[in-house]
Amino acid sequence: MPDSLLPISKTTFIGPFEVGRLAYGCWRFSGSTVAGATVKIEAALEIGANLVDTAAIYGFGDEGFGAAEAVLGDVYAANARLREKTVLVTKGGIHPPVPYDSRASNLIDSCEGSLARLKSDVIDVFLVHRPDLLASYDEVAEALTQLRAAGKIREAGVSNFSHTQIRALQSKLDFALVANQPEFSPLAIEPLEDGTLDIAQEMNLAVMAWSPLGGGRLTATHQPEAGTQEARVLSVLDSIATRESVGVDHVALAWVLAHPAVSMALIGTQNVDRIKDSAKAYDVKLSRQDWYDVLVAARGVSMP
Ligand SMILES: NC(=O)c1ccc[n+]([C@@H]2O[C@H](COP(=O)([O-])OP(=O)(O)OC[C@H]3O[C@@H](n4cnc5c(N)ncnc54)[C@H](OP(=O)(O)O)[C@@H]3O)[C@@H](O)[C@H]2O)c1
C-alpha cells in the first residue's frame, strides 16, 4: 500500500474560539520593550497565530513575577485592536516560593491579578497552570465556576494535568473544560502513551503543545551529544528538512501538528523573523513513514 501524507490544517478550535494551529507563547517575553513586544504579536498575527499564551508566573527569575503579562498588557493598552484580534490565554496557581496553590481563593486572586496586568476585562481561556496536589477538585472547580459566572473568564482549562486529574476535575464542573496544555515534542513523547492525548480526544479538549522545539534543542544551532535522543531525532528531522527545503524546527513543528489530537503548537521564539518563518511548518509534506521515523528516533527502539 502506498504511503500517504499527513494533513496539517492551519486552524482549529479551542472551545468556541477559532485559532491558528501555531500559537504564540510568552514565557520568554518579559524582557521585551512594548515596541518590541508589539512587533512580535503583529508577526504572530501575520502567520495566523492569533492565540497568545501567557501565565502569571512568566518573568519570575528575570524581570519578576507577572512581568510577561505586564508587557502584553502594555501592548494591548497601546493598541486595543491587538487585544480584539487575539484569543488570550493565561494561567494561574503558581506563586513562588510555594510550588503550587490552587485553593479557590488563590486561583481567583491569581486571575484578578492577571486581568489587571493584562489590562483586559476578560481572559478568553484561563488555565490551572499545574495540578496542586493539596487542592481538592471541589475547590478548583469552585474557583473556575465563580470566575466564569463573574464574566472574568470565558472558558477554563488545565495545564500539565494527567488524564485522571482532568476527569476528576471535570466531574465537579457543570461546564466543559476546553483545553489541556502538556509538553509535547519529539523530545517529550509521553503524552502519546500516558493517556493525555486520548482523554483530549474523548473530551474534545484542545491540546496546546508547549516547548514544541524542546525549548530550542530542535533547531539547527543546537549541538547535541552524540548517541543521545536529541542527536537521533535531529538526524531524522534534518534529512526530512533537507528534502523539504525547510529548517529542522519547521519539521519538528509539523510533526507535533500532524498528530490528530494536537490542536496547536506554542512557539516561543523571540525572533521576529523566526516567528514568521514558523509558518513553513504548514508546508512540510510529512508522510506517515516520516512521522514514525521521528518517533522511532525519539524512542530509541523500533515500534513493537
Ligand atoms: N504550561 C506550561 O507549563 C508551559 C511550560 C513551558 C512553556 N509553556 C508555553 O510554551 C511556550 C513555548 O515554549 P518554549 O519557548 O520553550 O518553545 P520552543 O519553541 O520549544 O523553544 C523556544 C526557544 O527555541 C529557540 N529557537 C526557536 N527557533 C530557533 C531557531 N531556528 N534557531 C535557534 N533557536 C531557536 C528560541 O530562541 P530565540 O528566541 O532566540 O529564537 C527559544 O529560546 C511558552 O512561551 C509558553 O507559552 C508552557
Task: Explain what the structure shows.
The chain is of the alpha/beta class and 304 residues long. It has a single domain (11-222, 249-284), classed as TIM Barrel. Helix content is 39%, strand content 15%. The chain contains eleven helices and ten strands. It has helices spanning 34-46, 67-78, 80-85, 104-117, 137-149, 163-170, 196-203, 229-244, 248-257, 272-277, 288-299, and strands at residues 11-14, 17-20, 22-25, 51-53, 87-92, 123-128, 153-159, 179-181, 206-209, 262-267. The strands form two sheets. Strands 3-4-5-6-7-8-9-10 form an eight-stranded parallel beta barrel, surrounded by four helices. α4 runs parallel beside α5 and α8 packs antiparallel against α11 (288-299). The longest helix is centred in the last third of the chain and has 16 residues, at 229-244. The protein is globular and about 55 Å long. The mean pLDDT is 97. The structure holds NADP nicotinamide-adenine-dinucleotide phosphate.
